[in-house]
Task: inverse folding
């Protein structure tokens, strides 16, 4: 959904990202329920993995985006396709943070928790600050269900929730009652309780409703009775909020009119933005887009999305394994396509030999790694940044590859365009490192005008490019552009451009097989020089106070780091911030930037991989702050850690 924002960009300071509510009192005329104005809200929907929490959160988010709030989301779901019902491992949640100003993270702690069963309550209660609101589906708090998650007594009755504002709501019973006229079985009617909860929260926060009703009718178009039942449950939830005495207050969060530049916006997830970026790159390059991929969490959404866009010349191939996927993509690159393969960390390991082949062949290829927790199968549905060193060095021989990392879900669009630019200009595979947090999270994205997109058109070789000593004109596949060191891209079948291709070392220029030691040394150094010479933007530093300490990040840590830095500055601290998109090659001014500061702190969701590279390359005593629990940093936690590190 899209919304128009016509005010100029004014970036407000990041609001407090703890769970403490920021409330101003404003009443409607006597006789009506009180309406309070808030500047931001964090809501977490939590339930069994079959309760539709992801759909509920997604619909609330879509309506919030259409209303014009700034927002950030954090879906969190189990790796099991269907974990045992009512158990802690089966809890699925969706957190959305929305505000009337510029925000950067999904929030540290929810102001409101919607708990659909005892497991959801137990798994999430520790994150809710005292005074927070908890909406509980009381129908699920049977003795057996509570015992399954370790409750010896009911938390709704034993006083353990006395510090919270608890709203006991029999969601299941109310949903079944609302759907009596549809003739559904009890089990079928129960499935709509998430829509009842969505309706209640939509009333509570004055969210639009038309989009959700339209969505439900479209989603269940082949089963109109189910569609109307869900719409009825949604409306019943809204009406319950309007009429019940338990909810005496509703809340309004004004649109974030001053947070965005003028333009047309839509809510977008990282994987969707990346997919659109790849399509835009293929159109700007005037090349067909080819995706050779094998399904793997959390990258599969890109395969699903691109398969819908054959009208843009996109061809998708779901291979039998990771190796076949990248092999097909590399073949497509040889044939003149903008070639992509998508995967996660375990798939990059399997693709490493073919990435090395792409380095040797010097063909453009985008390798998209949506990182997840590891090692091995690890944590398929959780996030991590632990593939950086694998991206840098995870191949045999000297096989340098550019590495690009987006910083927000919306930035995945621009990062895809940037990766395509590098691959096409320099004839090289490029590794794009997103992660599960960016892939599944979402935020508003300004849809760019076509004239804002880069021109990525590239020239194929069309004829001979070298003259032999005897005057014969021939085609040399490794004769390089003197500025970029890129070799010519010759599409198979072009008359006169027959040439040798393969993984064995080539003779400089001619591309013939060569075992000559001096030639190998030259080729290794030339391929490295090509990567070192890639044009990337200088690193920008945010340092309004002339700080002595710098916080350096990369990838998805941007939001939490920026929120933490804003908090430190509001408290009177002086700290500089810089964030890397290009990790190989580094920006040319990185060494100079690092040399300005007495202390450099590098927060990462790994055990210090960027810090290791910084220390080795620039001999800087970079301090690591690391987290590897499958979740993104919390701003409050990070601010406290940074203050401690900066004060040492």
Result:
């Amino acid at each position: 959904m899209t919304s128009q924002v016509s005010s100029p960009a004014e970036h407000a300071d990041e609001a407090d990202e703890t769970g403490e509510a920021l409330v101003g009192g404003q009443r409607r005329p006597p006789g009506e329920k009180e309406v309070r104005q808030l500047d931001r809200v964090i809501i977490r929907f939590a339930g069994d993995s079959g309760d539709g929490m992801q759909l509920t959160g997604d619909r609330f988010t879509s309506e919030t985006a259409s209303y014009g709030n700034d927002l950030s989301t954090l879906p969190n779901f189990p790796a099991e396709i269907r974990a045992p019902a009512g158990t802690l491992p089966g809890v699925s949640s969706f957190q959305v943070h929305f505000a009337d100003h510029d925000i950067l993270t999904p929030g540290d702690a929810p102001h409101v928790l919607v708990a659909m069963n005892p497991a959801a309550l137990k798994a999430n209660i520790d994150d809710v600050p005292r005074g927070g609101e908890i909406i509980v589906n009381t129908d699920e708090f049977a003795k057996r269900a509570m015992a399954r998650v370790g409750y010896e007594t009911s938390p709704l009755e034993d006083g353990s929730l006395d510090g919270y504002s608890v709203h006991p709501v029999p969601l299941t019973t109310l949903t079944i009652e609302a759907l009596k006229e549809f003739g559904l079985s009890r089990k079928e009617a129960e499935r709509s309780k998430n829509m009842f909860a969505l309706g209640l929260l939509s009333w509570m926060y004055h969210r639009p409703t038309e989009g959700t009703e339209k969505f439900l009718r479209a989603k269940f178009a082949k089963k109109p009775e189910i569609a109307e039942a869900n719409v009825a449950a949604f409306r019943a939830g809204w009406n319950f909020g309007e009429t019940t005495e338990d909810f005496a207050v509703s809340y309004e969060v004004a649109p974030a009119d001053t947070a965005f530049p003028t333009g047309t916006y839509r809510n977008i997830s990282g994987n969707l933005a990346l997919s659109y970026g790849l399509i835009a790159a293929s159109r700007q390059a005037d090349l067909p887009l080819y995706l050779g991929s094998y399904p793997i969490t959390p990258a599969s959404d890109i395969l699903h999305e691109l398969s819908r866009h054959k009208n843009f010349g996109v061809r998708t191939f779901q291979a039998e394994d990771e190796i076949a996927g990248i092999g097909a993509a590399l073949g497509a690159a040889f044939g003149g396509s903008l070639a992509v393969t998508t995967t996660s960390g375990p798939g990059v390991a399997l693709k490493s030999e073919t990435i090395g082949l792409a380095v040797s062949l010097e063909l453009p290829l985008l390798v998209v790694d949506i990182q997840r927790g590891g090692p091995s199968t690890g944590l398929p549905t959780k996030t991590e940044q632990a593939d950086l060193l694998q991206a840098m060095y995870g191949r045999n021989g000297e096989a340098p590859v550019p590495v690009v990392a987006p910083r927000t879900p919306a930035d995945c669009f621009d990062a895809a365009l940037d990766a395509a630019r590098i691959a096409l200009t320099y004839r090289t595979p490029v590794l794009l490192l997103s992660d599960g947090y960016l892939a599944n999270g979402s935020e508003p994205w300004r849809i760019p005008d076509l004239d804002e997109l880069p021109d990525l058109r590239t020239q194929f070789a069309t004829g001979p490019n070298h003259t032999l000593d005897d005057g014969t004109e021939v085609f040399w596949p490794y004769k390089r552009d003197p500025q970029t060191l890129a070799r010519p891209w010759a599409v198979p079948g072009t008359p006169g451009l027959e040439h040798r291709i393969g993984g064995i070392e080539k003779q400089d220029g001619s591309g013939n097989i060569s075992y000559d030691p001096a030639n190998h040394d030259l080729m290794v150094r030339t391929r490295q020089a090509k990567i070192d010479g890639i044009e990337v933007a200088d690193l920008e530093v945010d340092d309004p106070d002339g700080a002595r300490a710098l916080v350096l990040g990369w990838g998805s840590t941007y939001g939490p780091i920026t929120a933490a830095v804003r908090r430190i500055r509001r408290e009177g601290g002086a700290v500089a911030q810089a964030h890397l998109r290009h990790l190989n090659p580094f920006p040319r001014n990185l060494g100079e930037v690092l040399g300005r500061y007495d202390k450099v702190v590098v927060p990462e969701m790994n055990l210090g991989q960027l810090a290791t590279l910084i220390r080795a390359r620039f001999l800087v005593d970079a301090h690591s702050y690391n987290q590897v629990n499958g979740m993104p940093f919390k701003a409050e936690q990070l601010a406290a850690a940074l203050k401690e590190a900066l004060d040492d």
Notes: The longest strand covers residues 40-48.
